[in-house]
Write a structure and sequence with these properties.
Elements lengths: L1 E2 L7 E6 L2 E10 L2 E6 L2 E6 L3 H4 L16 E3 L4 E6 L6 E2 L4 E7 L2 E6 L4 E6 L6 E2 L4 E5 L1
Antiparallel strand pairs: 1-2, 2-3, 3-4, 4-5, 6-13, 7-9, 7-12, 8-11, 9-10, 11-13
Length: about 140
């Protein structure tokens, strides 16, 4: 692999096995995300004095948020369009959040049944607060 890269470059032209290769570069948690030919790869970059310890680090699993409606930004709940126990379909409006004088309608990503409504109309929420949960 041969390439000319300077920190901050978003795209590089590389040569791999004698063939030209365009690689898009993005930031990742511990290094770079490299995308080429429709595939993404991660390159982890650590200081030499602890790079050898990375193999012993436990990966923290992100929480499963697929059964929750999360507030995407700080705002005020102006309407809750469903009730507990109600079956919802994909695309159905669930709640309306007012943020920066704009109303944002939050819709269901998939079908399900509302098990708990954690926020009521008039509640002020922070980003990532749970609005409702699904079965």
């Amino acid at each position: 692999l041969a390439l000319a890269y300077a920190p901050g470059d978003r795209m590089v032209e590389a040569e791999f096995g004698g063939e030209p290769l365009s690689v898009m570069i993005g930031n990742a948690r511990y290094g770079l995300k490299l995308t080429t030919r429709g595939a993404s790869h991660s390159a982890q970059i650590f200081p030499k004095h602890y790079a050898h310890l990375v193999q012993h680090m436990i990966e923290k699993e992100p929480p499963d948020l697929s059964k929750m409606l999360i507030c995407p930004m700080p705002g005020l709940i102006t309407a809750v369009h469903v009730k507990e126990g109600e079956k919802v379909e994909a695309g159905q409006p669930l709640a309306t959040v007012e943020a920066m004088k704009m109303e944002n309608i939050l819709r269901a990503e998939k079908e399900g049944i509302v098990s708990t409504i954690a926020a009521e109309e008039g509640a002020s929420l922070a980003a990532d607060d749970v609005i409702m949960e699904f079965e």
